[in-house]
Amino acid sequence: MSAKYDFTGKKALVTGASRGIGYAIATALSKAGANVVALARDQAKLEDLRSKHSNISIIVGDVTASESSLTTLLAPYQPFDFLVNNAGCGILESAHSLTEEAVTRILDVNLKAPIMLTKIVTAEMARNSVRGAVVNISSQASMRPLQDHTAYCASKAGLDMATRCFAKELGQFGIRVNCVNPTVVMTDMGKKAWSDPNKSGPLLSQMPISRFAGPLQIFLAQYCAAHLLEVDEVVNAVLYLLSDSSTMTTGLALPVDEVDEVVNAVLYLLSDSSTMTTGLALPVDGGFTQM
């Protein structure tokens, strides 16, 4: 990890911490000195996480439990300085095959749970005068429609707006609330999905590279496949939003994406919007190139 942070003396709750992004966030916070409480359903994986870090405690539980149950589970550890709402799920269904069970599960995990956990945790922050920070793990899917992702996209769009609403209300207590919106991340689940053409094909086909032909399309397809996000890129964004480096930042939906920037740059340079542009070297690097 390129960025270095010191969270010594801070206490963080990370949900969905038994694998993938949540596991990596809990690990990074622990290495940065924070006392971490990892919440997930998989006891074996949580035990594995705890065995590697003396400053990680675990809670085996479901984020969709009732408010009273969650309050009881978290009470021994309150108040927290940080909350990372990472737990999430995705069930792909086409418009006419949507099931009530899947829609309910997606909305419960991706939207209701972060809302209720934010309420429970930030209430104790405010009561104890803790100027804390909340980071919600959202998605680029909150900003654009995707095939077979109706419930998932809606849940993440709702999470983005909940983030803004909480930021507006909790600012008076010195509590910041932001979200991180990654594109496809190379977790074990992501690698498995994107190595299966039946799963990756429909998503890749929605990227705007299909309008190109020949070598350019091949190049962009190879670029997209090679530049899907690594977990550490998301972790660094989360650590930044929890740190004192972002004390003036709240209500932000932070895109963590690279592929779309390149594709959009190509689209612009091929469009009529750039008819007066030639001989340009256009940097697509997040603004770090000195012009």
Automatic annotation (TrEMBL):
<protein>
    <submittedName>
        <fullName>Uncharacterized protein</fullName>
    </submittedName>
</protein>
<dbReference type="InterPro" id="IPR051737">
    <property type="entry name" value="L-xylulose/Carbonyl_redctase"/>
</dbReference>
<dbReference type="InterPro" id="IPR002347">
    <property type="entry name" value="SDR_fam"/>
</dbReference>
<dbReference type="Pfam" id="PF00106">
    <property type="entry name" value="adh_short"/>
</dbReference>
<comment type="similarity">
    <text>Belongs to the short-chain dehydrogenases/reductases (SDR) family.</text>
</comment>
<dbReference type="GO" id="GO:0004090">
    <property type="term" value="F:carbonyl reductase (NADPH) activity"/>
</dbReference>
<keyword id="KW-0521">NADP</keyword>
<dbReference type="GO" id="GO:0050038">
    <property type="term" value="F:L-xylulose reductase (NADPH) activity"/>
</dbReference>
<dbReference type="GO" id="GO:0005997">
    <property type="term" value="P:xylulose metabolic process"/>
</dbReference>
<dbReference type="InterPro" id="IPR036291">
    <property type="entry name" value="NAD(P)-bd_dom_sf"/>
</dbReference>
<dbReference type="GO" id="GO:0006006">
    <property type="term" value="P:glucose metabolic process"/>
</dbReference>
